[in-house]
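Researcher: Here's my situation. A collaborator sent me these components and asked whether they could plausibly form a single complex. I don't have experimental data yet, so a predicted model of the whole assembly would be a useful starting point for our discussion.
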Amino acid sequence: MTGTAPGDDTGNGGSGTTTAGAKGPTGGGNRLVKGPGILLVWLYGVMSVGAVSRSVYQIATEFHRAPLAYSLSAVAAVVYAFITYTLVRGGETARRAALACCAAELAGVLAVGTWTLLDPGAFPDATVWSKYGYGYVFIPVLLPVTGILWLRRSRRPSAEDARPAAV
Amino acid sequence: MLDALTAALSAAALALAAWCGFAAYRDQPTKDWHFIGMAVVTVLALAQLVVGVVRLAQGARADEGTAIFVAYLIGALCAIPAAGFMSLVERSRWGSATVAAGAIVLAVLEVRLYDIWKG
């Protein structure tokens, strides 16, 4: 049943308009979810769902076993969820917030990754950011880098918008 | 039955990832045929969810716990439809790349599901 849902939409979406550009001025603010941005949002969404469900389950069932690791996983989950939200929301403020969070995320991955390597005894169980995201195919360390690159590139259109300053 | 479905889904997901990755490489958005492929993979994932829940109801136990097993089954079911809808919004090569990424995520989920069931 559910499987047919995406297929049905193809009739409209596939043969219909190919609005790939969407470069027109879309109201206020710059859309961050366009081009490579959609792939970024997808990956951040996946990491959010993964990290949130993982930390909720672990904190609810076995928090006493590795409090530090599970707390750090929860922090990572909140950061991922917030970045996903700001990316979807778009606009200059959201772009700046997302940029700051990506930097915080990168710092977190590097700090926690180094910490897990130097002092494995503090972590009886893995966090999302253990060993620089080894358990997640290093996506946790690659994602903020691509995120920062993308967010810096997206700045250009809004700089042009700000030029008149007559409004 | 469940293991066969898991193996079939992994293969189907990797094939879908290669197919949509190729479309992204050729600078094409997802087309009707891609969505039919996504529907096939999603139907397989739905079958896996049903079979998994039935097996649990019959008294079988997932090695790493029922909650994790069911959560992964639901995640596996949602991965491709979510990526498919995003590729409808983004009618460019990046929509195809998103579906390819979604299919890879599904393949990883299947490997984890196999571990969770068997231990």
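Model: Some features of this prediction you could bring to your collaborator: The helical segments of chain A are 4-13, 36-62, 67-89, 92-118, 139-153, 155-161. The interface with chain B takes residues 1-7, 9-11, 13-15, 18-20, 33-39, 41-43, 45-46, 49, 53, 57, 137 of chain A (CB under 8 Å).
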